[in-house]
Amino acid sequence: MSFSVFLIVFAVFFLFGMPIAVSMISSAFLYCLFMGVDLAFMGTQMFTGLNTFVLIAIPMFILTAEVMNSASVSDRIFKFCNSLVGCIPGGLGHVNVVTSIIFAGMSGSAVADVGGIGHLCYRAMVDEGFDEEFSATITISSSTIGPIIPPSIPAVVYAMVANVSVGKLLFGGVIPGLLMGVILMIYVYFVSLKRKYPKKPFVSWRALLVEILSTFIACIPPLLTPIILLGSIYLGVVTATEASAVAVLYAVLLGFLVYHTMKFRDFIVCLKKVFITSGSILLIIPAAKAFGFVLTRENLQMKVFEAVTGFAGTNPVLIAGCIILLFVILGCLNDPNVNIILFVPMVLPLIDAAGFDPIHMGICIIITAMIGNITPPVGIVTMTVCSIEKLNFEKTCAALVPLIIILFAYVIVLLVFPQIVMLLPNYIMK
């Protein structure tokens, strides 16, 4: 009975527009009052285990993206990608995807992607003659690449919860993220041929190569960001968390010394944005721990394990299907980081029972959570784009359906072929 009240209170608070962290904390504390649990003990539970070095990477990754945006890196990346793939049918649609891939190496957040370079790409597509809904769906779906290719905030959160290597998770997201971009570009290509969308006129191979070379040279410094991040981890010079600090230092040097597009007050503005963004993310973690305390007290982890194994036995295909289905449903309703914190500990015994590598399943869960991030009824990224660009949410969601189906099919491919995820971690971080 008390657990039912707990869930109802959480749902009511959430539906009435309270922040997710506040809803989780409030419902957890009301449960404790109802059950006679010492509130001081609950307060202790919220912050136990949060003094971990790994969490520092979250604000560092966000700060890297903010500094890169402030340093006008987005324009340089856009021009390079336009010279590279703008002549392919669907030109700016491909540019949208490729810029998201490159910006993913500096961001780690889907919302940062659509709020920064995504807006630039969307406006360029619409001005060029692409439909608003199509332009929005490509911007939204390509933003899911951001948290897959390192740096990745969900990967840091998953590593903390599942107690696995952050470095392996970061390397594990490289190939799946790149393949996701290829899949989206194939979709853009065929839709553009069918609808006769514009592309950049082709003059000559010589002119094209000169343009690519000139825009590439201007874009080399920001392109080195993910190489510095992953290279320093691979060489063992720094840990994944220390590498995030190196990425921030590199971004600051670009803004102040290389491009001369940043001033000290711009950096202060970036810091303010980081405090707001990372504050909301980091507040979710103790809130989720309070919420998770209630779930643990009600023995929900064992109930989930028994329910899934009772249905699927030890069949890895069925267990994987149940895990992905769980995160699909959760992703449609909730923040990906909250879902990872709350429910990954519940499915870890299932992952172990089915014989899956937690790194492999971690990438699959993160991708599924990010697809949920663009899927209605909540779809945080979709809502963000519709809000920024003044678009109809229902029409945009309807246009997103084919891409959501394609991306879910891609998750199944990753489940069937774990080598796609594990190739780099196994080769580089033995």
Overview of this protein structure:
This protein has 430 residues and is an all-alpha fold. It contains 21 helices and no strands. The chain folds into two domains: 1-48 and 283-297, no CATH class; 49-262 and 298-428, no CATH class. Helix content is 80%, strand content 0%. The chain is globular. It starts with a helix and ends with a helix.
Relevant terms:
430 residues; globular; 80% helix; mainly alpha
Explain briefly what this protein structure is.
By secondary structure, the protein is an all-alpha fold. 80% of the residues lie in helices and 0% in strands.
Sheet of most strands = none
* Derived structural class: mainly alpha
Task: Give average pLDDT, whole number.
Answer: 84
Label the overall shape: globular
Number of H- or I-type helical stretches: 21
Number of domains: 2
The helix fraction, in percent, is: over 70%
Radius of gyration: 22 Å
Write the layout of secondary structure elements.
Layout: H1 2-15, H2 20-35, H3 39-47, H4 57-70, H5 73-85, H6 91-104, H7 110-128, H8 132-143, H9 153-162, H10 166-172, H11 174-195, H12 205-234, H13 240-258, H14 264-297, H15 300-312, H16 316-333, H17 336-354, H18 358-372, H19 380-389, H20 393-416, H21 419-428
Helix pairs in contact: 1-2, 2-14, 3-14, 4-13, 4-14, 5-6, 5-12, 6-7, 6-8, 6-11, 7-8, 7-19, 8-19, 8-20, 9-17, 9-18, 10-21, 11-20, 12-13, 14-17, 15-16, 15-17, 16-17, 16-18, 17-18, 18-20
